[in-house]
Amino acid sequence: MADNPNKGHRARLRTRLFEGGEKALHDHELVEYLLALAIPRRDTKGQAKELLAKFGDIGRLLNADADTLRREGLSEGVIGALKIAEASARRLLETRIEGRPLLNNFQALGDYLQATMAHRAVEEVRVLFLNAKNMLIANEAMWSGSVDESAVHIREVIARAISLGATGIILAHNHPSGDPTPSAQDIRLTRELTEAARHMKITVHDHVIVAGRGRTSLRAEGLI
To answer: Which of 44, 73, 80, 134 has its CA 20 to 30 A from that of 172?
Structure first.
């Protein structure tokens, strides 16, 4: 059997990764290596660059659901390689916020939210429920779509907090536009939720908006 002509190239990528970490490889090289796990005897550099060009960046590619990737003609093996990379990255970031006071680990929390939500094509609102020691009790996606029906959503969040025995809340959602600037609706929802929660002795610690171009803390901006 003939030698795989791509073997040496992939060995060099692997050496660079081992010696220099993830920053040693370009995004297209990371995707190229992932594709090679499923199709080891094919040159995957061109396909990696095409996928990144189509989806815009590596975050959007890894966050794409399986049906979307199938429509691009990718095999189940390739889709599996991409999705296991996404799942592993999320799990790693989750371990950095579990079992620790979140208010003392805000960088880790922001990194987790950025990886989990920033590249979603649809707006999603997630609520992190905390106990009296600011430890995470539950991390739940509460609804998808706009934050318009604030009264309905506030009742949902408060009811869930009470059922969990939570004393603190961190709200998070994404802006698919890529711009993390809070909208008037974002600010209104936050303030209404803060006031409603206060009456139930629940503290809204922050509302974090994540997007492709960064993230914004309403607490840091003085909007809570």
So the answer is: 80
How far is it, in rounded angstroms, from Cα 168 to Cα 43? Answer: 51
**Angle ∠(40,41,45) on CA atoms, nearest 5:** 75
**Quick one: tokens of 49?**
């660059």
Q: Which residues contact 194 (CB under 8 A, 6 or more apart)?
A: 204, 224
Q: Mean pLDDT throughout 2-7?
A: 59
Tell whether the model's pLDDT for residue 159 goes beyond 90: yes
Angle 144-96-123 from CA coordinates, rounded to 5°: 15
CA angle (26, 31, 36) in 5-degree steps: 125
Contact 180, 216 (CB under 8 A): yes
